[in-house]
Each structure stands twice: as C-alpha cells, then as structure tokens.
Amino acid sequence: MKKTIALLTGGTTGEWVVSVKSAATIAQHIDTDKYDVYKIMLTDQHWFYEPADSVKIEVDRNDFSLNLNGRKIKFDGVFIAIHGSPGEDGKLQGYFDMIGMPYTTCNALTSAITMNKGYTKAIVDGIKDLKIAKSIQLFNNDESNLNEIINTLKLPYFVKPNNGGSSIGMSKVKEHNDLKEALDKAFKEDNQVLVEEFVEGREFSVGVFKTKGNIVVLPATEVIPANEFFDFEAKYTPGATEEITPGRMTEEEKNKVERVVTAIYQKLSCKGIVRIDYFLEHGTSDFYFIEINTIPGQTATSFIPQQVAAMNMGLKEFYTQVIEEAFT
C-alpha cells in the first residue's frame, strides 16, 4: 500500500527560493509507485496545498492534515525540504515530534544546534583527525569587537552569520579597514556572527546519509569557485564554480575524510541527508571542519544530486532510502 508523503517547501527566510527549487527536484524523482506526494508550501502566514486548479487549501495544523474535496488526507510522513527557518532550525521538527509525525531530517535538538556554527564546532571539537580554524563568536555588533578580532586572529578572516546557510551575508576580509563593513553585512542576517581565520586549502563538500541503519558517505565534491570563495552567488549560479565529483583526493585522504565525517554524523546524532563542508589544508592535508548543513540543497546545481550520480545511484532510489529511513 502506498504511503502518503507531504513534501514541505518554502520557509520564512531568503532561502525559500532555493527550497522551492529543491522541492521541484525531489518531486520529480520520488517513486510515485510507492508514494502519494502532496507538495505543501509554508510561508510566514500560511501552510497550504495548491492543486492544479490553483485553489489553495490550508493545512489543518492540529494534526497536519488536508481536507480535499470533503476527504481528509492524513500523512504517513514528511519530506522536509525547507532550508533555513523553520525547516532547518528544529522548529518544525519539534512540531512534528509533538504530533507523532515521522520526518526525513535530523531531530529538533540536532537541527537547532547545527544551525549555530559556533556551538556545532564546540561539539565536534575533539573528534580524531578533525581540526577547527581559530575563531571568535560575536553576540552584538559593538565597536569593541574590532580590537578583539585584530588582536586575537590573523588576517585574512572569514566573517559569516552564525546561523543559517546558503552563505548569505558572508565576506572574506583581507584588510582591517574592511572588517567593519563585513561585520555590518553579517549582522544584517543574524544576531550572532562568527569570525574565523582563513585556512589555505582545497575546499570540499560531502553528503552523508543513513539507510537501513548504516551511515553512507557519498563521493565528495571538490569546490573551485571562480569568486574568491564559495559565496551565495557561486553556490547557486550555474558555471560560477568548478565542481569536481568525485573530488581529487588520495586514498589516504579519502579514508580519513570518510572516518571523520562518519564520526561527525554520529556525534551530532544526525539523521537523513546532511552535507559536511571541509578544507584539506595545503601542505598537510589536515581536515578542517567548516560547517554542516542538515537540509542540503537538491537543486539542479546542488552537490547532493551530483554525488548520488557519482555513486551510480538514481535519485529515485536515493529518495526512497531517505524516506524509508524516516520510518525506522
């Protein structure tokens, strides 16, 4: 018997544009022989299903159901494809936990913690072979921060919002004179900001998921942005980044990366698809953790679909494994 799945898209941040594209990819590849899929749009004010006749039908949030032509549709589970809040920060996960609805992502606690880059680094610090760039976490945009950063960290810096994804609000600072502008830009996106020392190395991004209780590491993508770093434009503009999947790593590097990202997945108690970004430092090949994304993009330019293909797996099979894992 088919399961009825809600594919949840939209959101309340600037990342909703990416979310809509991700949901389109997922909807195109879900196995409709196994699942009846209803795409649910979430906005600031409304949660609704929009059938072909364009009449929006509001979701009953008491039990997350739909009333469609006098028929009550109850869902077996939810495929959450919302990047940013409230899909990636634990809010929706908490709601679904309360009503007993299975979902495809990490739980509420893991989702909330991993949205905070500084807190995440504190938790994964100590994993064997994992290194972390020296950083300062700021909680207000105060002038006194400038001296603390200059006196504590070495140029160049990465300045980025501490919460959120898609690299919105991120800057690379090479001169102290540019620091204030970078902080202002990041604080427009978030009330916490992370300032890190720049690590000279090759950048990679690797997908990790769990299926039938086993953690699977996808082939990593090596990221070579045309811009100076992998910002929002580079991430979502076709051709703005050279992407090599599988990334160029020695067997030793590949084995180390698989060990480290598996340990990260376990230590953060992850579930579903996550994407872990890291540097391999020039000269040492040391693994430097950048961040984890617990609802990575599934758009045409996103890494996860590329990596699934490099593993010789179809997206239909992949999404089936992700959905089925939600019910375990």
TrEMBL record:
Annotated metabolic or biological route of this protein: Cell wall biogenesis; peptidoglycan biosynthesis
GO molecular function: ATP binding; D-alanine-D-alanine ligase activity; metal ion binding
Coiled coil stretches, renumbered: none
Keyword Electron transport applies: no
Annotated ATP-grasp domain residues: 124-324
Keywords in alphabetical order: ATP-binding, Cell shape, Cell wall biogenesis/degradation, Cytoplasm, Ligase, Magnesium, Manganese, Metal-binding, Nucleotide-binding, Peptidoglycan synthesis
GO BP terms: cell wall organization; peptidoglycan biosynthetic process; regulation of cell shape
Keyword tRNA-binding recorded: no
PROSITE patterns cross-referenced by the UniProt entry: ATP_GRASP (PS50975), DALA_DALA_LIGASE_1 (PS00843), DALA_DALA_LIGASE_2 (PS00844)
Reactions that this protein is recorded to catalyse: 2 D-alanine + ATP = D-alanyl-D-alanine + ADP + phosphate + H(+)
UniProt: Mg(2+) 1 binding residues: D277, E291
InterPro entries (UniProt xref): ATP-grasp, ATP_grasp_subdomain_1, D-Ala_lig_Van_CS, D_ala_D_ala, Dala_Dala_lig_C, Dala_Dala_lig_N, PreATP-grasp_dom_sf
Requisite cofactors: Mn(2+); Mg(2+)
SUPFAM superfamilies noted in UniProt: Glutathione synthetase ATP-binding domain-like, PreATP-grasp domain
Gene Ontology cellular-component terms listed: cytoplasm
Class in the EC hierarchy, top level: ligase
EC number: 6.3.2.4
Active site: E15, S166, S302
Gene3D superfamilies documented for this protein: 3.40.50.20, ATP-grasp fold, A domain (3.30.1490.20), ATP-grasp fold, B domain (3.30.470.20)
Chain positions recorded as Mg(2+) 2 binding sites: E291, N293
Task performed by this protein: Cell wall formation.
Stated family: Belongs to the D-alanine--D-alanine ligase family.
Protein name per Swiss-Prot or TrEMBL: D-alanine--D-alanine ligase
Organism name: Pedobacter insulae
